[in-house]
Design a protein that fits this description.
Helix content is 62%, strand content 10%. The longest helix is centred in the middle third of the chain and has 13 residues. It is mostly helical. Helix 1 packs across helix 4. It has one domain: Rossmann fold, CATH 3.40.50. The strands form two sheets. A three-stranded parallel sheet has the order 1-4-5. Strands 2-3 form a two-stranded parallel ribbon.
């Protein structure tokens, strides 16, 4: 399975010490160089960088040509990481893109790409018995405490998943 990720799901999972779920669910995860740069250069994520750099299941891909990236960013109103992740998905015929942002998910939908966000990853880990019901609740509380936004609809979907 070819999986490409944007920045936000990685940061969210790092904030709740669950980054290993990506390896357990997908094996290798592809990161465009633009996403890698967002993760490692942005001072907002300095606490998470050490944990991220210990992960050996990420494969960093080359930067996208500047002209192609800029056009994609403008056409879709996305940042460099989101744009590069979507371009790499198309280039690699990826099975899945990991992305939380609505504009990025809308672009993925337009491109007929299967998309999963942080909450979908947590739900998938629960379905695969990698997390217990209590783990899921603790993770959600941790995400909320760290300032990560979870819409009411996604929260409800996740709670229904763990009540099944």
């Amino acid at each position: 399975m070819i999986v490409v990720s944007d920045t936000t799901p990685i940061i969210s999972l790092l904030k709740v010490h669950q980054i290993d779920l990506l390896e357990k669910l997908f094996g290798k995860v592809i990161l465009p160089a633009e996403v890698y740069e967002e993760l490692t250069v942005d001072n907002r994520f300095y606490k998470e960088i050490a944990d991220f750099q210990e992960c050996d299941f990420f494969e960093i891909e080359d930067c996208i040509d500047d002209e192609i990236l800029e056009k994609f960013k403008q056409d879709n109103k996305l940042d460099a990481g989101e744009s590069a992740a979507l371009i790499w998905c198309e280039k690699l015929a990826a099975d899945l893109i990991l992305m939380d942002e609505k504009n990025g998910r809308d672009a993925a939908d337009t491109m007929n790409l299967k998309c999963m966000g942080t909450i979908g990853i947590i739900a998938g880990a629960y379905r695969n018995r990698l997390l217990s019901k209590q783990d899921v609740i603790s993770i959600v509380l941790g995400l909320q405490k760290s300032g990560r936004f979870i819409s009411d609809g996604l929260y409800k979907m996740l709670m229904e998943t763990i009540e099944e």
